[in-house]
Amino acid sequence: MASNKYTAVGFIGLGIMGFPMLENLIKKAPSTTKFYIYDVMAPALEKMASNYPDQVTVCGSSKEVAERSEVIISMVPEGSHVRSVYLTPDTGVLAADVSGKLLIDSSTIDTATSLQVREETLKKYPTASFFDAPVSGGQLGAQKGTLTFMVGSKEDDPEFPVLQHLLGMMGANIVPCGGPSLGLTAKLCHNYCSAMIAIATSESMNIGVKAGMDPRVLANVFHNSVAQSTVCDKWCPVPGVVPGCPASNGYRGGFRVQLMRKDVGLAVDTAKRVGATLALGGAGLQCYTDAANDPKCKDLDSRVVYRFLGGNENWDGKQAEREA
Ligand code: NAD
User: Fold this and answer.
1) Sequence ranges of the chain with CATH classification 1.10.1040.10
2) Which one of 54, 60, 74, 284 is at 20 to 30 Å from 41 when CA atoms are compared?
3) CA 39 / ligand 1 centre spacing (Å)
4) Cα–Cα–Cα angle for 207, 210, 211, nearest 5°?
């Protein structure tokens, strides 16, 4: 870690994303780097500690992680969890003296919570730093170390080179988004856009298939025309069009529809807060909310909106094969 001055790194939240992100960090950091970890669920902690016994120490609270580390990274589900991790009296990160330490939250949460945690951090410990740095790239990107980090900082922030170095061990693109909470803003705008593209692609493919078209022909027309998108090219919501993508595998894997619902909700809230008019936000949020609560769609990849909208999944007679 040539440009990284830290030798004790804390990590809080070892779930679907946090676990592989931390593994990459451990593998790529110098072997002398020590890691202090915490999660409310013990099994992930035990697994990580037994995989890397010389480098990893399990802590009993976020406070302990913060006491023993110089940089602390958190990756938990929602704003309420981030508040709990940082602000819980006696056991939260800010219960430790984090003067001069670097705090990075990579959770996808609302900007207001992130700004509140940053403010409380700086009020109590003026020499500490707090950055939002959410990610895109999913579980696969976390495993491969190819995540995109959207960092709530300016490019010329004195801490940015260190952030770039640390986060670069878990990701391929480290993007300074301009200032506090703007990493989250970028993430929420991105997910809102991709969520609406997934609905538009599902709806238009549904029209085409119901009218008798082969969805592969339609996808090829989109690919070569103005409706081209990564959603259609790589994550096509119609099963059997893109081999290997979640829709072609019973919608397993990918980005859970409940998480997409959460992110669209956060984007719609942000739009209200900043006064941005949305034509699609209300209907889109309702669609993801209903899909997330539908037993046929719950826990599956968010492109399952095609199924939710009643799309024909058996257009090629191979649905049973894909569901097996
Ligand atoms: P997850 O539920 O798999 O993992 C979250 C972990 O945080 C769990 O292990 C949980 O026990 C732990 N946790 C919760 N509250 C805690 C607390 N108070 N103290 C310590 N640990 C606590 O979630 P995930 O899929 O890893 O997602 C994490 C974040 O990353 C979310 O904000 C999500 O929106 C975002 N994200 C997820 C994906 C994805 O594909 N899963 C992609 C990009 C971004």
Assistant:
1) 185-323
2) 54
3) 10
4) 85
